């Protein structure tokens, strides 16, 4: 028969056993930390924010461009087109050129025209470019796209387009834009804007060179 002292000792041991079991359950629930209140991330899983789309710092971005009308040509044969605002005229007349303030980007026109077709002029320009590491990217629809390495400025890109007013039989105007390869999207935007806004006189005679 157990004495009251033995009964008290057994009750104490039973209480300690229950306490250890409860403490172990808390450890299992809270991921090993009995003081944790919210531990939702499993061990070995690292949560991270979605990657950001890289941007081209300092590039010619189409969305940042605003355009103004520039007049050139001659008094008898005036021509106009839209070029990026802030680009200054480096020369005028029938072969005007407009440069951005940094000198990195440019657009130029040649309004003298030619009796050759745009495709013939594309081929001729391709073979006449004397630049290091010349690589022609495309030569479609009267437009030549190419890259090369300039000794002073490094990698460059050019897009030259010849516009015909008679179904491709002759060429009326050349538009060329230049910059760096990473500026391609902006250069294409400048070329398209100049093409879409180009205004030419209607001349009665054909004085274009061969």
Structural notes for this entry:
The protein has 3 helices and 9 strands, in the order αβββββαββββα. By secondary structure, it is of the alpha+beta class. It has 2 domains: 1-36; 65-197, Protein Transport Mog1p, Chain A (3-Layer(aba) Sandwich), CATH 3.40.1000. The strands form 2 sheets. A 7-stranded antiparallel sheet has the order 3-4-5-9-8-7-6, sandwiched between helices. A two-stranded antiparallel sheet has the order 1-2. 21% of the residues are buried.
- Which of globular, elongated, flat, extended, rod-shaped describes the shape? globular
Strand content: 25-35%
Class per helix and strand makeup: alpha+beta
CATH topology annotation of the largest domain: Protein Transport Mog1p, Chain A
Q: Which series of helices and strands comes N to C?
A: HEEEEEHEEEEH
Oligomeric organization of the protein chains = single chain
Count of individual beta strands: 9
- Mean pLDDT level: 82
Spatial arrangement of strands, main beta sheet: 3-4-5-9-8-7-6
Gap from first CA to last CA: 129 Å
């Amino acid at each position: 028969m157990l004495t009251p002292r033995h009964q008290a000792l057994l009750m104490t041991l039973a209480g300690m056993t229950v306490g250890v079991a409860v403490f172990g359950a808390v450890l299992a629930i809270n991921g090993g930390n009995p003081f944790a209140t919210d531990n939702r991330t499993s061990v070995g899983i690292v949560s991270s924010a979605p990657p950001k789309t890289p941007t081209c710092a300092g590039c010619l971005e189409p969305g940042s461009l605003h355009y103004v009308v520039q007049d050139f040509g001659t008094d008898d044969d005036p021509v106009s087109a839209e070029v990026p605002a802030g680009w200054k005229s480096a020369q005028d007349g029938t072969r005007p050129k407009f440069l951005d303030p940094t000198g990195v980007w440019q657009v130029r026109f040649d309004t003298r025209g030619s009796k050759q077709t745009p495709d013939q002029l594309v081929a001729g320009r391709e073979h006449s470019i004397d630049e290091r590491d010349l690589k022609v990217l495309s030569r479609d629809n009267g437009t030549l796209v190419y890259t090369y390495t300039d000794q002073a400025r490094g990698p460059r890109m050019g897009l030259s387009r010849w516009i015909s007013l008679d179904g491709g039989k002759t060429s009326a105007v050349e538009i060329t834009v230049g910059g760096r390869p990473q500026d391609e999207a902006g250069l294409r935007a400048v070329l398209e804007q100049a093409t879409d806004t180009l205004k030419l006189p209607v001349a009665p005679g054909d004085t274009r060179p061969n």
